[in-house]
Amino acid sequence: MSVSTEDGIELTGVTKRFVTPTGSTMTAIRDVNLRVGAGRFCAVVGPTGCGKSTTLTLTAGLERASAGQVRVFGKPVDGITPNAGFVFQTDALMPWKSVLDNVALGPKFRGMATRDALAEARRWLGVVGLAGFEDHYPHQLSGGMRKRVSLAAALINKPRLLLMDEPFSALDVQTRAIMTNELLRLWEQTRPSVLFVTHDLEEAISMADLVVVMTAGPATVKAVYEIDLPRPRGAVQDIRFTPRFLELYRQIWESLREEVERTYALSAAATARRAAS
Amino acid sequence: MSDAPITPRGGPAPAFEVEDPLAVAARRRVRNYKLTVRAGQIGTFIVIVAGWQLLTHFKILDPFFAGSPWGILLRLADWAVHGTAYGSLWLQIWVTMEEALLGFAVGVISGVVMGVLLGEIPLLADILGPYIKMVNALPRIVLGSIFVIWLGLGLPSKVMLAAVLVFFVVFFNAFQGVRSVDRNLVANARILGASRLQVVWHVVVPSATTWIIASLHVALGFSIIGAIVGEFLGAQKGLGLVIATAQNNFDTNGVFGAMLIIGLIAVSAEGLMSIAERRLLAWRPPAATETSQAGL
């Protein structure tokens, strides 16, 4: 496995603590070490609320690490990471802008002339299959269509790094399967590095080159699995039934289950404590 | 590669049964309701005005103190034809409206600018917070007296009073609006490459607009109050002065007449404001009440 760390994401001993409004500190992630090479698709799975998203916000430069170093494309993260795209769990579309204006925001912010930005946005809406919806407002679209707009808005800047925070978790199962295929198709065209946070192990294995399992909070990397399923993967609905997929699933689930159960036990204990006091 | 049936606007619309008896009945219900409301409004008007007129006509109420609808009409006609003590009626109306509109504009602009500034810079908000609350707690009429002393009996003192009244309403709403901006939207814009100013212009201001517009209805009323009260405190022209003079002459009909004019101005301004609001907030999903009103 040859990984050029110069061109990927590299987290070394990264810890993030938040100060809560009451003054106490909360450790979201501790001592995370992770390397994702250029053009690789990395899925991060872990129990609910363990701090998976924090790795994304640190990589994007929205937050600073309390300790350790985050490097992207060989440079330490200092301010917003350039060349990155982010797809949020909830829609991050401006409800007062039309679909076209929303997608055109990225190029406009980066100094492209409005007319060129709009032409580029029109092209991207075509790429994600939304030609004809340029003048709609986000609230007029279905959840899956809004997600396509979010994808177009993130990809239009041609990011070398794509960060996704449970992007499809709010979608229904069918739409989600379609969007998964769609994302793979788009990714294979431009091949940015991807950090994809999800709680769905099936989704993780069917899409990624690497699956990272994180521990119960404060989260740290528990294990990294290479997914050697061939590419292009084709329909993710079919790949789930191949023997190799099932083997990988069993293996990773074994590791993930411990953490999920631990999280559950911890939260149950905390609830019991609260109830007792 | 498409989810849900995708029908672009202007594409084939779903077949719609026009003569569906249920839909017809629902539409009739809606129309009947609207007619009932209108009839009720007219009825209320007639009962009040006719009652008032009759009570004063038969001296059950003293017309000297209560005035009468007919007397008010005569007074208004007299003003319209012969003018008031300070020149034509239209001039008085125009003077008051000019003061109110200028005060409204100054108050709204300064309120929005300050609200966005303090909302965006928490340090500034924490430093200035107590002073703003203090000034806000002052009875505005006291400020009116100061403005008359500073700026004289002309237009500027009224504009200032109206602007101060408007400022606080708009400021607090703009500030709250900026504070409640969706953090996700800001994060997204920053990752897309927006500078601080671009974030403010493309995310913060539009998102606070809903809040700001909600305050404008109240602010509009306040701007008229500011102008009238300012004229009460000392002026050479305007509806407030006309009312003050009518009061000094125990001309009840004159007071009511001027009040009626102010009411009409306020209602039409309110109507214009609603139209502007619909334009500015066209992006919002239709409110649930509108669909339930259809009764389908």
UniProtKB/TrEMBL annotation, chain A:
Alphabetically ordered keywords of this record: ATP-binding, Nucleotide-binding, Transport
Domain ABC transporter per the UniProt entry, residue ranges: 9-241
Any one GO MF annotation of this record: ATP binding
Taxonomic superkingdom: Bacteria
CDD domains according to UniProt: ABC_NrtD_SsuB_transporters
SUPFAM superfamilies: P-loop containing nucleoside triphosphate hydrolases
Segments traversing the membrane: none
Coiled coil: none
UniProt record similarity statement: Belongs to the ABC transporter superfamily.
Protein name: NitT/TauT family transport system ATP-binding protein
Species this chain originates from: Acidiphilium rubrum
Source taxonomy: Bacteria, Pseudomonadati, Pseudomonadota, Alphaproteobacteria, Acetobacterales
From TrEMBL, chain B:
Localization (cell): Cell membrane
Main location: membrane
Protein family: Belongs to the binding-protein-dependent transport system permease family.
GO cellular component term, pick one: plasma membrane
Membrane topology, record value: Multi-pass membrane protein
Transmembrane segments: 35-55, 100-125, 137-153, 159-178, 199-229, 255-276
GO biological process: transmembrane transport
Alphabetized UniProt keyword annotations: Cell membrane, Membrane, Transmembrane, Transmembrane helix, Transport
InterPro entries per record: MetI-like, MetI-like_sf
Protein name (database record): NitT/TauT family transport system permease protein
Source organism, top-level taxon: Bacteria
CDD domains: TM_PBP2 (cd06261)
SUPFAM superfamilies recorded: MetI-like
Lineage: Bacteria, Pseudomonadati, Pseudomonadota, Alphaproteobacteria, Acetobacterales
Ranges where the ABC transmembrane type-1 domain occurs: 93-277
PROSITE patterns: ABC_TM1
